[in-house]
Write a structure and sequence with these properties.
It is a single chain. About 60% of the residues are buried. It is built from 17 helices and no strands. It has about 425 residues and is mainly alpha-helical. It is globular. The chain has a single domain, classed as Growth Hormone, Chain: A (Up-down Bundle). The chain starts with 14 loop residues before the first helix and ends in a 9-residue tail after the last helix. Helices cover about 75% and strands about 0% of the residues.
Length: about 425
């Protein structure tokens, strides 16, 4: 039985873009700005590794941003439930743009200490968290409920474009024109985000509103205590992102294990997003899936298996039995690079399937006047989880071989998801025809 008649093709459903011009502009602006943002994410990692030759220092970029992101997600959710969500998104976009400009300015001034990059990256992450919280709380007001799964798939395609094109461009630009121009291009591209937000109508939360503060937090947490399906969607994503996020390893992998330097790092980073984009491209029937909890469980288990496989490839490549490694693509370990990219593409596809159904669950099961606060927690989970994962990778890599972290993490994901799905029948039987938090 399907949730809706939906599309009869497996290709992505473009109906949300056609039916809502406001959604289309927001989607396009966010995609263009996101390409630049992902360029900077990769460039900052390469820049810090270039200065320190330390995977731990690269991992700390995300770790330092974690606490500001947690605060921004929670407070941003309260703002989105108290004020016009368009204005909240616009204010946070301005802060994000200014912090991006500060990173570029630091590079142009040849700043060779780490703290400015940590500081401005953390500020940018916090502002982006508020912006994402507001934007995601806005979407259910722009589209009917039956189109939200298709909108989530389009958002996945957007993310795929960001992380496919952005990192690939970063690798080429860093190798070709250096860090300063790479950051500067992001400053220009980010201005597209303003177009999508400026043209939105005013979007004030429906129903009772709470001023930002402790009472608002208590109200949101009280609702979450009565929402076991939403809680479980948070828990399974935290597990996946904590133990299955090997991105902080990529600079060392490109320099020490597989070879290829910045270009290989860009390819590895882009591969996960390519999987995201391809899975979104063939997402035409996601609106017909009824049992969202089961779909999430299977998708995250597949994600863990791909991460484990990536670690195995690194373990084999680390033996150096094919040929010596250098940072030149001509001397890179191409068989290992291809296998690693395929497995990372698989992980990106699996994560996107999970994200489509988790996002739809959030947007349909949570009341509008609670959506900002719950979306804030959701955004903290989605964006903060990878930062915890960066810390996990950094710690394990500091004391063990680089391949240990993804092998151990992937195995833990598969085992923990199987255990949770076995003992949470309510989540396993979540019905999209009767969405309950």
């Amino acid at each position: 039985m399907s949730v809706s008649a939906g599309t009869r093709t497996h290709l992505v459903d473009l109906t949300p873009l056609k039916q809502s011009p406001a959604f289309a502009r927001l989607w396009a602006g966010n995609t263009i700005a996101g390409i630049g943002s992902q360029m900077t994410v990769v460039a900052v990692g390469l820049h810090i590794f270039d200065m320190t030759s330390s995977t731990f220092a690269v991992a700390m970029v995300g770790t330092v941003a974690l606490l500001p992101m947690v605060f921004a997600g929670l407070y941003g959710g309260m703002l989105a439930d108290a004020f016009d969500r368009r204005k909240v998104a616009l204010a946070s976009a301005i802060v994000a743009w200014l912090s991006t400009a500060a990173i570029a300015g630091s590079a142009w001034l040849s700043v060779d200490v780490l703290w400015p990059y940590y500081l401005f990256t953390a500020l940018n992450a916090a502002a982006a968290t508020v912006m994402g919280t507001s934007r995601n709380a806005i979407l259910p007001r722009l589209l009917p409920r039956e189109l939200l799964p298709a909108a989530s798939a389009l958002t996945g395609m957007s993310m795929g474009l960001m992380i496919t094109v952005g990192p690939a461009l970063a690798g080429v630009l860093v190798a070709g024109v250096g860090f300063t121009w790479t950051y500067t291009i992001d400053v220009v591209l980010f201005t597209a985000a303003f177009l999508g937000i400026f043209t939105l109508p005013a979007i004030v939360p429906e129903g009772e509103r709470h001023k930002p503060g402790l009472d608002s937090v208590r109200s949101g947490l009280a609702f979450l205590r009565t929402a076991p399906n939403i809680r479980m969607s948070f828990i399974v994503d935290i597990i996946a992102m904590t133990f299955g996020r090997p991105h902080a390893l990529f600079p060392a992998v490109g320099a020490l294990i597989i070879g290829g330097g910045p270009v290989a790092v860009g390819l590895l980073t882009a591969s996960g997003a390519l999987g995201t984009m391809v899975s979104s491209l063939f997402s035409g029937r996601v609106g017909q899936v009824r049992w969202h909890g089961r779909a999430i469980g299977w998708a995250i288990a597949a994600y863990g298996a791909c991460v484990l496989g990536f670690g195995v490839v690194l373990a084999v490549a680390n033996t150096g039995w094919i040929h010596p490694i250098t940072e030149s693509m001509d001397a890179a370990n191409l068989p290992a690079l291809i296998l690693a990219c395929l497995l990372l593409a698989g992980s990106g596809a699996a994560d996107n399937v999970s994200s489509i159904f988790r996002t739809t669950m959030m947007q349909t099961a949570v009341p509008d006047n609670m959506r900002g606060r719950l979306q804030g927690i959701f955004t903290v989970v989605v964006t903060g989880g990878p930062r915890v994962g960066d810390f996990y990778i950094g710690v394990v890599a500091a004391f063990a071989a680089l391949w240990i972290a993804p092998v151990l993490g992937g195995a833990l994901i598969v085992a923990l998801i199987a255990l949770l799905m076995r003992f949470n029948a309510g989540f396993r039987h979540y019905d999209a025809l009767n969405p309950t938090p």
